[in-house]
Amino acid sequence: VQLVQSGDDVRNPGASVKVSCKASGYSFTGYYIDWVRQAPGQGLEWMGRIDPEEGGTKYAQKFQGRVSFTADTSTNTAYLELSSLRSEDTAVYYCARNTAVEGYDYWGQGTQVTVSS
């Protein structure tokens, strides 16, 4: 099982960023994908999840209206898009496979998103 994320990115305030998470080695539609981020000096922050099979999503209230998750079952890739970026969004963004019963068992390598003018 592997989750491989897109490369690090630098964006201006107010812009959007899209991070990808390509899954392999398992049935992509069999597990939710969760997105979690970690800002410098902070703990992990859950952003939400997507069900790749049905496309259903759940977003943390903090990010409602600014975040969107999608999943492409033809390429086994999940996407996070975050808009209206601000400096506080500077963080490492992770995707993780959610087993529902035993929590997260596989993680992507992380994508550093830096928001700076």
Report what the structure shows.
With 117 residues, this protein is mostly beta strands. The protein contains no helices and 11 strands. Strand 9 (91-98) and strand 10 (104-107) form a beta hairpin. The mean pLDDT is 97.
Q: Could you name the key traits of this structure?
A:
117 residues, mainly beta, seven-stranded mixed beta sheet, 0% helix, globular
Which structural class is indicated by helix and strand composition? mainly beta
Unreliable stretches covering 5 or more consecutive residues: none
Strand and helix order: EEEEEEEEEEE
What amount of the residues lies in strands?
over 45%
What's the helical proportion of residues?
Answer: under 10%
Separate helix tally:
0
The major sheet is characterized as: 7 strands, mixed
Number of strands: 11
End-to-end gap:
37 Å
The rough form would be described as: globular
Rg (CA only) = 13 Å
Question: Secondary structure elements and their pairing?
Answer:
Layout: E1 2-5, E2 9-11, E3 17-24, E4 32-38, E5 44-50, E6 57-59, E7 67-72, E8 77-82, E9 91-98, E10 104-107, E11 111-115
Parallel strand pairs: 2-11
Antiparallel strand pairs: 1-3, 3-8, 4-5, 4-9, 5-6, 7-8, 9-10, 9-11
